[in-house]
Amino acid sequence: MTGMLALRKARKKLRMGTICSPNSGGTKTEEVCNADWMGSLPPRLSTFPLSNLAIPGSHDSFSYWVDEKSPVGPDQTPAIKRLARISFVKKLMKKWSVTQNLTFREQLEAGIRYFDLRVSSKPGDADREIYFIHGLFGIKVWDGLMEINSFLTQHPKEVVFLDFNHFYAMDDAHHEYLIQRIQEAFGTKLFPSERVENVTLSTLWEKKCQVLIFYHSPLSMKYPFLWPGHRIPAPWANTTCVRKLILFLETTLGERAPHGFFHVSQAILTPRVKTIARGLVGGLKNTLVHRNLPVILNWVKTQKPGVLGVNIITSDFVDLVDFATTVIELNNLLLQGDRALAKC
C-alpha cells in the first residue's frame, strides 16, 4: 500500500500547479506551468538516459518575433527577395515566418526543453553579429542565449537542448564569433559531448551542467562542448497532409537507432507554395496549424518513450494546445513496471 501511495505522489509531481507568467499579449495564460518539470520527475527517472525520456520541443523556436523592416533573409530565394520590395509582402511573409507565440522564457516556463535554432549574419552589418532567421530576421542570438541562461540560473535542475541546425551567410569568422558567444553565455553550464547513454539528469545535476549544444558544422569537432549535429537526427516529413505526417513519424520512429543518438520527432506540417497562395492572408497558424494540431496531439498521446520510443517531440505554436504537458506526462509510462511491482 505504501508503495502505491509513493507512486501516485511521484506521478502527481509531473503536473505542476502554478500559473505561468503573463504571455506576450499581456494576459495570464491558463496553461499549467512546467518550469521545474525535470527537477520534479520521480527520482528513478533521473537515472534514465535523456534519450529515453519524452521531452517537448518547439519548431523554429525563436520565430515569435521577426523584423518586417529588416532585409529578407538569405534563406529565401531570389524571387522572394524581389517580391519583398513591394511594401505589403513582408507583412504577409511574417504570417508564414512566425511559428511560435511564446518567447524563449515563456516556452521554458511551459516546459519546452528542446529549441530548433536557425541563424544568420545580416547584410550590411559591420560587425559579426548573428541573428535568428526564418524568412525574416529575428532577435540577436546573444539576446536569446541570455534569456535562456537567466531561466536556467533560476531553475538549476532544468536542462535544455539547443540545436543550431541551419547557418546562413556565415564564414568561419562568424562561426568562431558565435561559438565564443555560446561559451560566454553558458560557461560551466555546458555539458561536453559524451556517450548518449551516459547523459542522465542525475549526471547533469552532479556536474551542475544544464546545456547541450548541437552544432551542425564540422567546427563542432574543435570544441568539446559542441555536440555534432548527427547525434540528434530530426527527420522531416515535408508534407501538408496530417495523415502522411503521422505515417512518417511512425516510420522514422521504427527506424530509430537504439543507441548512440537522441531522436527528434518533428510533428509539424510544412506549407507548399500553393498552400501559401490559398491561405495568403490567413498565415501558417490559421491555414495549417489550428485545424491539425488536435490530430497531432492525439498521436502524441498514443506514444511511449524508451529505447525505441519517442524522445524529443517538436511542434509549432506550442501554446495552442496542452502540448508540453502531454509530452511530459508520457514519462509516467516508464514507471509502469514499478507500478506492477507495487501491486504485488
TrEMBL record:
GO terms for biological process: lipid catabolic process; signal transduction. Keywords: Hydrolase, Lipid degradation, Lipid metabolism, Transducer. GO terms for molecular function: phosphoric diester hydrolase activity. SMART domains: PLCXc. Gene3D superfamilies: Phosphatidylinositol (PI) phosphodiesterase. Pfam families: PI-PLC-X. Residues 47-216 form the Phosphatidylinositol-specific phospholipase C X domain. This is Phosphatidylinositol specific phospholipase C X domain containing 2. It comes from Sarcophilus harrisii. The lineage of its organism: Eukaryota, Metazoa, Chordata, Craniata, Vertebrata.
